[in-house]
Write a structure and sequence with these properties.
There is one protein chain. The protein is built from twelve helices and 14 strands. With 384 residues, the chain is of the alpha/beta class.
């Protein structure tokens, strides 16, 4: 699949963005620079008819008013986000919000982008996914829709043989499941149990069943992400209709080793044919992408990826790694806050020696560690 170009001007705080969506596209930048807004807009452009029909199905009406729709879709306070000054084009063709939404409702269009929002932990209430209408009207559509997907997944159930949610045979590559277990669950099992006549997700630690709110913060943050991955990777091993996947801040609440395990899952999604858009504040993700790009440029052997992820060789993972090194392309964009708005810039080379500091310090993710090293070096020199 070839890359898709998206050009955007004057969307909220974003002044300009010219982005090519590759197999893996990373968004980096400080908080409140528009990463989530841009990802939500991409979802809207790709799935406008589906979104409009879904909102109407659950009783939401915006009365042909774009401002009302902005508030329903993007969230409370976003009435003027997509305005008359906003310009959006896909592959050079202009797209308008009223064309996306107001003229084609009733067509049963499937989703082609699956969105895992940063607020995903809010989708699980007392160990069970919330329904679409259980959220406030001002909550972003992507949060409500993601939660509804999880609720449908849980209703469908998992293995008929037992109540295990994690680990599950056949859902993930065994080596990846083992990595998640070692870095996040540490031998505990996640189960679907009946508590006071209601289904609940619990964690089983040496026979002790713990409710969702008693889990570690990292485990709670990871659980809805895991369920979203299950939606994308059914046991049948058949990919769902979704082609694009957005994951906002997959590192939330996780130790760097656990983040590496999540990166492995992302590589598995790429291997299965999905294209990923990921926003992140973690240098670990950028380090992994930087390493993979360099291995690609040098036609390196997969053994170096095994070393990077600290895995023992196996045929399935070798096939995955070979596919990544030979066939997948990566890009990185930095949301650069200027006085007159945010400019989204291509820093895909991630060259630490680039004259452009935004590229060299990976959109600011490594600037503090570089400064800390300089300060310590200077302090040592001053004592000599």
């Amino acid at each position: 699949m070839t890359e898709i170009n998206i050009n955007i001007k004057n969307l909220g705080q974003i002044k300009s963005a010219n982005i090519d969506l590759n197999d893996l596209t990373l968004f980096v930048g400080a908080q409140a620079t528009g990463k989530s807004i841009l990802l939500q807009l991409i979802k809207l452009v790709f799935d406008g008819e589906n979104i409009g029909n879904t909102l109407m199905k659950y009783g939401y009406h915006w009365e042909q008013d774009i401002s009302n729709f902005n508030e329903i879709y993007f969230g409370e306070g976003m009435r003027n986000l997509w305005s008359d000054k906003t310009e959006v084009s896909i592959e050079g063709k202009a797209r308008y919000l009223d064309d996306i939404l107001l003229n084609e409702l009733g067509i049963d269009e499937p989703e082609c982008l699956f969105f895992m929002p940063a607020q995903r932990v809010l989708t699980l209430e007392k160990g069970w996914p919330r329904s679409f209408n259980d959220f406030e009207t001002g909550d972003p559509y992507v949060v409500r829709n993601f939660s509804e997907h999880l609720r449908l997944l849980m209703q469908q159930g998992f293995s008929k043989k037992d109540n295990a949610i994690f680990p599950q045979t056949g859902r993930l590559q065994q080596e990846i499941s083992d990595a998640l277990n070692a870095s996040i669950f540490h031998g505990a099992k996640v189960e679907l149990n009946t508590v006071e006549m209601r289904k609940r997700i619990q964690i089983n630690v040496n026979g002790n069943l713990l409710p969702f709110m008693a889990w570690s913060a990292g485990q709670r943050e990871f659980m809805p992400l895991l369920l979203g991955l299950y939606w994308l990777m059914p046991i049948s091993n058949l990919k769902r209709e979704n082609v694009y996947v957005v994951i906002e801040e997959p590192e939330m609440g996780l130790h760097p080793r656990a983040i590496l395990s999540v990166i492995l899952v992302c590589l598995e999604l790429l291997h299965r044919g999905y294209r990923l858009l990921i926003s992140t504040h973690s240098p670990v993700l950028l380090e992994a992408v930087w390493a993979i790009r360099n291995l690609q440029n040098n036609n390196s052997d997969v053994k170096y990826l095994y070393q990077l992820f600290d895995l023992k060789p196996s045929p399935p993972i070798t096939e995955l790694f070979e596919n990544i090194l030979k066939n997948k392309e990566f890009s990185t964009y930095y949301f650069d806050q200027k006085e007159d708005g945010v400019e989204v810039r291509d820093i895909s080379s991630l060259d630490p020696f680039d004259e452009d500091l935004s590229t060299a310090d990976w959109g600011g993710l490594t600037s503090f560690s570089s400064r800390a090293s300089e300060v310590v070096s200077q302090a040592v020199q001053d004592t000599l």
